[in-house]
Design a protein that fits this description.
8 helices
């Protein structure tokens, strides 16, 4: 305990001395060892890299996750090293509400069936958006954050040590200048040589780290290119989804005998079902992943068209259609709509 107290007092005294020394340097009453121009240029580039990387990272995260509350939640889970809870995107929530509203208004009405259809496609958009956010995180935001947490932190730590060595060196120079007797001067000069050696060594270490910023820029360039490719693929998928939706809505509104502004009466429903070769509407109760290419994957709350697989009913499976997608679907995952 006595040793720790002495060390604490000694460290506090050294810290106060350095504060006084830095104040004297700012006032111009004390000399300061300057770094060479090449080092200063390297340090300026490193500072710019840190500041702009932080800004780019914040802005990219704001684009990928617009809700600041979700960003704060993700940050907290990252700090406590726990897996963040999965959440639906805003588009998926919109899709669920559209499907529910369409079910309430009646799947047999033009407006209700259109709401259900658009809701299904909004869910697809939402899933595509979530996949894009995950891919963008892996290829762009996570590498930038890792650079700030590792390489940049190391550079700042070594630069701080260099500043400490520089203050020690200048303090030794002052002691040499103030030495009055031949007895004290050799000791001061020896301390100066040691301080100069430690300062030069730390400057070389820091310079090597700063020169590595060029390699970091090259790595960040590759991340940027991957981010652009991921974003382009995302927008292409969105265009395809919305084009298919427009085609589906156009085919629904152009069906014979259907007035888009009026409910469809039971007789029209019968005629429509006959035209669809016995297909009936069914709502999906649970998500289902297709086990092979003969099956159709399902999303909870979406509405699809189904019919029996053959002449005899199958206890386990039905034949399902969703737009141009077709395949077997499990009967237990469906609820028929009247």
């Amino acid at each position: 305990m006595d040793f720790n107290m002495k060390k604490m007092v000694r460290d506090a005294g050294a810290a106060i001395s350095r504060v006084v020394q830095m104040t004297e340097e700012k006032l111009g009453t004390s000399e300061k060892t300057e770094l060479d121009a090449h080092f200063e240029n390297l340090w300026e580039r490193a500072e710019n890299t840190k500041n702009w990387t932080e800004k780019l990272l914040r802005n990219t995260e704001a684009v990928l996750i617009p809700n600041p509350g979700n960003r704060i939640e993700d940050f907290i889970y990252h700090k406590i090293e726990k897996k963040r809870p999965s959440r639906l995107s805003n588009l998926e929530y919109l899709g669920l509400d559209m499907i529910e509203a369409g079910t309430v208004f009646g799947p047999g009405t033009a407006y209700g069936s259109s709401l259900i259809k658009v809701g299904q496609w909004e869910q697809k958009l939402g899933q595509t958006e979530r996949d894009f956010i995950g891919s963008a995180g892996m290829c762009f935001t996570q590498p930038l954050q890792k650079f700030l947490d590792t390489e940049m932190k190391t550079i700042l730590k070594e630069k701080g040590l260099l500043e400490t060595k520089r203050l020690d060196l200048d303090a030794c120079k002052n002691r040499v200048r103030k030495a009055r007797s031949m007895l004290g001067q050799p000791t001061a000069e020896r301390d100066l040589r040691i301080a100069q050696s430690e300062y030069d060594r730390q400057a070389e270490i820091t310079k090597l780290l700063l020169e590595g910023i060029g390699s970091s820029h090259a790595a960040h360039l590759r991340c940027l290119q991957e981010f652009v490719e991921t974003q382009a693929r995302f927008y292409s998928q969105c265009t395809t989804i919305m084009t298919d939706l427009q085609r589906e809505l156009a085919s629904m509104s152009s069906m014979p005998g259907v007035d888009p502004h009026s409910p469809i009466n039971p007789k029209q429903n019968e005629a429509k079902n006959e035209a669809l070769n016995g297909l009936r509407k069914a709502r999906v109760i649970y998500d289902y992943d297709a086990q092979d290419t003969t099956e159709l994957s399902l999303m909870a709350n979406e509405v699809i068209l189904v019919r029996e697989l053959g002449d005899k009913p199958n206890e386990d499976y039905l034949y399902g259609e969703r737009g141009h997608q077709k395949g077997k679907v499990p009967r237990a995952f469906l609820e028929f709509l009247s």
